[in-house]
Amino acid sequence: MARVLIIIGSRREGNSTLFGKKLKEALKKERISADTITPGNQKIYLCTGCMDCDENGICDFKDDMIENVEKVNSAEYLIFITPTRWNLLSGDLKIFMDRLNPLYASRKLEGKKLIAIAIGSKKKEEYSTDGAVTSLGSFADSSGMKLVYHKQFNECLKYNDILNQEENLTKTIEEIKKIIKAS
Ligand SMILES: Cc1cc2nc3c(=O)[nH]c(=O)nc-3n(C[C@H](O)[C@H](O)[C@H](O)COP(=O)(O)O)c2cc1C
Fold first, then answer.
1. pTM of the full structure
2. 81-122 pLDDT, tens per residue?
3. Which domain holds residue 137?
4. CB of 120 closer than 6 A to ligand 1?
5. How far is CA 2 from CA 5, 62, 73, 140, in A?
């Protein structure tokens, strides 16, 4: 199982997916294998908050989260790439995070390293991607994970606008590679 798990918060073949693909290719060149999940394209039921998993660490739903939970459990690094939505993270990621409560309940998220990438269409001065990064950071904090790196890409509206920020893109991927290689 890959020790790096990339979780993409957008269903479209847009900026988040592009970033994830480029990162995965770069890691592969360093012989670091990474798995990618796009929760929005999977079958994932909404958490009902029944709290059964607090008792036994198991969710009653039978859907794609069974495999996802195994992948998250085996990963050392979770790399969340989110489009900014209303100054927050994407809803697809929030649904995914809620369904990780079985791992939280059995304290299996503790000590994992989280990397947060937020992409948005607004300008840096509008601070919109800040909210997306903060929400991922709060998730890390409250689940006992460590936010080891975060980066924001602004002014990305259309599908592949992130490719206009070549320098930032390359630098970010290099920095992530360096962190993972050092561990
Ligand atoms: C419902 C919705 C809300 C959005 N809200 C914001 C926002 O608050 N701030 C922002 O900078 N961009 C916002 N955007 C734009 C997306 O973050 C932007 O297009 C991003 O590049 C999408 O990533 P993707 O290409 O990976 O889907 C919003 C887009 C949608 C669909």
1. 0.98
2. 999 999 999 999 999 999 999 999 999 999 999 999 999 999
3. 4-182
4. yes
5. 7, 23, 11, 20
